[in-house]
Amino acid sequence: MKNSLRLERTRFLRIRTTALAVSLCVIAGSSAPPAQVSQFSQSETITVDAAGVVRPFPHFWEKVFGSGRAILTLRDSYRRDLRAVKSITGMEYVRFHAIFHDEVGLYNEDGRGQPVYNFSYIDQIYDGLLENGVRPFIELSFMPRKLASRLVEHPFWYRQITAPPKDYGRWDELIYEFTKHLVQRYGLDEVARWYFEVWNEPNIDFWSGEPKEATYYELYDHTARAIKRVSSGLRVGGPATAQAAWVDRFIRHCVETSAPVDFVSTHVYANDSAKDVFGTSEQIPRSDMVARAVKKVYDQVKGSGRPNLPIHWTEYNASYMNEVNVTDAPFMGPWLANLIGQCDGLAATMAYWTFSDVFEEQGVVKRPFYGGFGLIAAGHIPKASYNAFKLLHQLGGERIAVDSRSALVTRRPDGSLAIAAWNYVPQDEVGQPKSFSLVLKGLSGPRRVRIGLLDATHGSALAAWEAMGQPSFPTREQQRRLQAEGQLPAPEIKRLPPGSSAVTSLVLPPHSLALIEVVK
Fold first, then answer.
1. Is 315 a catalytic residue?
2. Which of 139, 197, 315, 485 is catalytic?
């Protein structure tokens, strides 16, 4: 993640004093939207054929999540948040920085200057992940101090070393011994299901080799070949760049030098600049930046000498800054749903940065809501983003095409429909309510409609924290209240009379996300 983090915004912009409830109307045997929806300034009719053509819809957005740094995984608070996110998503992998940081204790040198390896914390870190049902997406970083060519510290609170190794022979043996130990402890069949990603964002200040790109390729080549010495079946890739950089040139390098590569990875944030990502001066809105970067890299891979390489976005979010009215706010619900709809089919996985605010890049967390990147705030308080993932997890594995940029229509194995609909408004705008009419065709037998809503007063604790006076250190009773406010309320349920078609209408306030389930 970028190092140019900014101070939090002083106050979340309230979009209204009283939240608008979902307005639900059901009309059987009709394809016309209800008359009353015309009073709203925005309206949309979406026609859904329940028996229509579908295509696979893998849940690429919820398989991998990012987190802070390796040593944090040993904390109970980290593991508690991990279990919570695992329980409401399809989480399979977690990625974090600094497995080689000196605080983990892996690498040292004895009095004669010979390498000494200590796997005590390494084993506790990976045991903890596996015991909680997730696997590591290993980011191989940063440089142990005694192996660094220069003591170049990154500005983050934990002062990781960003320099190349002083001796590539010793770096190679570190990678080899580390990988061999993992295979001996967990078995080749298990570790072959993990990923090994070389470094983090070498195109910016996380890598101090010069010139950056050429020295990163040297690091990558040594690392990839050391891993493959353990087993050719282990997966290794890169370049793990910020701003969707280098991917085409990285693949070209691997092809030309026969360097092992099993996947490509890169990062992007929705408030990255067009100049950094595309080399242009255009103004790309936050709603579109990530998707455009994803499409850029997809096209680069397809046009490369290795067109079938899987693409893993190992960091993304709506902001790389601390913006309370973005990452802590209901804004994240429609932003995330919009992104999923645009990026479907263009990536193997996308790792949201991060699943938890057990996170210390800027030091110890000072208050629950500061624009942190996590789905769960300090004190195990679910954010709106947590509930956005919870709702979107319930989408089916098949997608039905509809003519809308504000809805995703999916079908589950049992034939039920799961539809996400949202009212996206830029984070600093008040916006207007939006009415939706869902024309449901191809139904058989009686059905029920369940609607779950995420907005400022449903599934978000931010307003309650503000009403408390924004306490930096909530009391235990306040913390319990905030945890309760962060829970999604039960969905509203209506019945559809028997018939082959029906119309369901709802009104969504700005910055809101709804999950509509049509079930028997």
1. yes
2. 315
